[in-house]
Amino acid sequence: MDKAQQDALKKAAGIEAAKLITDGMIAGLGTGSTVRFLVDELGRRVKEEGLQFTGVTTSRRTQEQAEGYGIKIVDIDDVDHIDITIDGADEVDKNFNGIKGGGAALLWEKIVATNSDKIVWIVDESKVVDTIGKFPLPVEVIPFGAGHVIKKFEAKGYKPTLRLDAEGKPVRTDENNYVVDLHLERIDHPQDLAEDLITTVGVVEHGLFLNMVDKVIVGDPNGPRVLTNSNK
After folding, report:
1. What CA–CA distance (Å, rounded) separates 135 from 192?
2. Is 101 left (phi over 0), alpha (psi -120 to 50) or beta?
3. Model pTM?
4. Is residue 211 over pLDDT 90?
5. Scanning 35, 45, 123, 212, which has its CA 20 to 30 A from the CA of 95?
């Protein structure tokens, strides 16, 4: 699938998901290429339909985009709940286990998600997989002692790499942490891995989002289709 086709599917999923946000809602707005299309559509609805809602964003770049459309954005601690969060995902399997953090916003994304009544992911069809793990699993780590955390991951066979930017410097998250990507190829026991990662000293958060999502809107050439998680 070429990029233009993929973008068309992402846009269709984003426009479909925008219908879930109604007047007066508090909505979590995720991060990434598919969410950009969502925010574009919400901006159009604010301007053309007079839609009024309050947004909580999972990254500074989503906040800037939303505010550019006149969407009211507040701090997560200024709201007592979030009605719905719409975000992208890097991979999602049939058990509704997902990997997120390709855009290095996993910590804020997980904080917003865990404070949301409903979670919806928007993806193009290439992100739907049988078993997660082909996409490298992002882990957010404190810079202090990061080298030791990486050595521990190496010893466990997790194949870690420190994520670098175009200049070869470590990528920094919005909280100024590092991202270590684990090249696992497949994750057969995601719960066990999640437990191992989060109990590793120096790890702030990992990109495993397990059985958290209520619905996944998939951009499909025949039109967006919705996968509903019956375990939620």
Report:
1. 18
2. left
3. 0.96
4. yes
5. 35
CATH code: domain 137-205 is 3.30.70.260
List binding-site positions.
Answer: 31-34, 87-90, 100-103, 127
Q: Three-state DSSP class for 59?
A: coil
Q: How far apart are CA 214 and CA 26, in angstroms?
A: 17
Q: From the candidates 16, 41, 91, 109, which is the catalytic residue?
A: 109
The amino acid at residue 164 is L
Do 41 and 66 meet the contact criterion of CB atoms below 8 Å apart?
A: no
Contact between 78 and 67 (Cβ < 8 Å): no
**Which residue ranges are tagged as binding site for substrate?**
31-34, 87-90, 100-103, 127
> Are the beta carbons of 106 and 95 closer than 8 angstroms?
no
**Range 3-128+210-226 has CATH code 3.40.50.1860:** no
Average pLDDT of the segment spanning 95-116: 97
pLDDT at residue 1, rounded to an integer: 82
* pLDDT value of residue 213: 98
The reply to whether 154 belongs to the active site is: no
pLDDT at position 232: 82
